[in-house]
Amino acid sequence: MKTTNKKILVADDDVLVRKLLNEFLTLCGYDVDCVSNGKEAIALVETDSYDVLITDHLMPEMNGIELIKKVRDIKKSLAIIGMSASEEERGFLAAGANLFISKPFSPYTLKNRIEEICLT
Questions:
Q1: Is the pTM of this model over 0.90?
Q2: Which of 11, 65, 67, 115 has the fewest C-beta atoms lying within 10 Å of its C-beta?
């Protein structure tokens, strides 16, 4: 599979979701890092360069909306996709997410949204 030179950070407390997204996005050619909470995500955003952050809503330490607000203070141009099984679209978008995806979703839907967000 071809590489895209795009680097993605996934923040989700569910180990299975992290594993599946890591495997799928890597197969799609992305360079992927995964963390289990918002504090870990902030530490990586401060020290590394990412093209896209994909974050869940409900996580320990710091939820996805709090994470987005802090990331926007650090890297205003970072593309952010919020994902949640709850109805949090407005909260994610108000916090600064570029896009929202409702769980459950097809991995191909996520891939298309990543491609869309990287083109803008």
A1: yes
A2: 115
31-35/7-11 β-pairing: parallel
pLDDT band at 89 (very low <50, low <70, confident <90, very high): confident
Please state, in angstroms and rounded to a whole number, the distance separating the CA atoms of residues 15 and 34: 9
**Domain count along the chain:** 1
Domain limits at 44?
7-119
Cα 10–chain centre separation: 5
Residues 68, 82: Cα–Cα separation, whole Å? 9
Q: Please, which residues have CB within 8 angstroms of residue 120's CB and are 6 or more apart in sequence? A: 79, 98
Region of 22 (left: φ > 0; alpha: ψ -120 to 50; beta: rest) is alpha
Residue 82 maps to a domain: yes
Asked if the structure places residue 106 within a domain, the reply is: yes
Q: What is the CATH number of the domain that holds 50?
A: 3.40.50.2300
Q: Residue 118: which pLDDT band, with cuts at 50, 70 and 90?
A: confident
